[in-house]
Design goal:
Blueprint: H1 2-10, H2 39-51, E1 58-63, H3 65-77, E2 85-91, H4 97-104, H5 110-130, H6 146-158, H7 163-170, E3 183-186, H8 202-205, E4 210-213, H9 234-249, H10 253-257
Parallel strand pairs: 1-2, 2-3, 3-4
Helix pairs in contact: 1-9, 2-3, 6-7
């Protein structure tokens, strides 16, 4: 995300990087927790950029969980998206959360899941100290997997019945077919966390607004080229290229819908 923001800034664009709730040292700012369904946070940023900053061309890009969130936001807005939202891009989006959590739970990904769970637990302990009495962390001590964490923490404190309910209601796949703005999805067929079969879903395949780029290799949000130069960090280059193309060719989506408007 820093690399993409640097590219945008170097091109003369405004670049805004959004911390999820409790990420980037923001735990003290709110008593709530982040989760993969909080697309409303992204809509709030979009509206602020339009109403306060008067930006006429806005692009959203997200990686992994952030990719799910930008796609979910765009799908929920559908064809009613503000004309200033010119496009969205998602790199390795975890758009079918249950499948992704199951993939992380495979024996081959044991090291990664242990790291993720340990980090989530540490974050919750910091959070509990900042907001005494709000969180009961005793059930968390027996948690060993991401699904277990989502069952006892995410679902409990974010308004879901359980982990399965959370995954079903928060996955972008349920609304990606409604996306009405130009969309780029970059993923790798060998992504160990995001099963590639998610991207053959009719909701994606049949939506003419969605452009899918899926090389055989790239891992999860990696895509590091063996060659130096501008394409060294290949995914960032593709996202910036996509945004620049739209910025040059689509001055305003409202003008496209109403070509005779003066």
């Amino acid at each position: 995300m820093r690399g993409l923001a640097e590219r945008a800034f170097a091109a003369g664009w405004n670049a805004v990087r959004l911390n999820q709730r409790n990420c980037g040292g923001t735990e003290s700012l709110t008593s709530t927790l982040y989760n993969s369904g909080l697309s409303g946070d992204y809509r709030a940023v979009l509206i602020e950029l339009i109403e306060r900053d008067s930006l006429s061309q806005i692009f959203f890009a997200g990686y992994s969980m952030g990719g799910n969130l930008v796609l979910k936001m765009a799908g929920e807005l559908a064809c009613a998206a503000p004309r200033q939202l010119q496009g969205v891009a998602a790199v390795c989006p975890a758009l079918e959360l249950a499948l992704c959590v199951d993939a992380v739970g495979l024996p081959s990904n044991f090291v990664y899941e242990r790291h993720f769970v340990s980090d989530l637990k540490d974050r919750m302990r910091r959070k509990a100290k900042l907001f005494p009495g709000k969180f009961d962390l005793r059930p968390m001590e027996r948690v060993r997997t991401l699904r277990e964490f989502d069952d006892v923490i995410t679902a409990t404190y974010c308004g879901f019945r359980d982990a399965s309910d959370y995954y079903a209601r928060s996955s972008a796949l349920q609304v990606v077919g409604e996306i009405g703005v130009p969309t780029l999805v970059v993923t790798a067929q060998d992504d160990p966390f995001v099963p590639f079969r998610s991207f053959s879903d009719p909701a994606i395949v049949k939506n003419v607004r969605v452009r899918l780029i899926a090389p055989a290799h790239g891992g999860h949000c990696a895509f590091i080229s063996r060659y130096s130069g501008d394409d060294r960090f290949w995914a960032e280059a593709r996202v910036m290229e996509f945004c620049k193309e739209l910025s040059a060719a689509l001055p305003d989506r409202e003008e496209i819908k109403e070509p005779n408007r003066k």
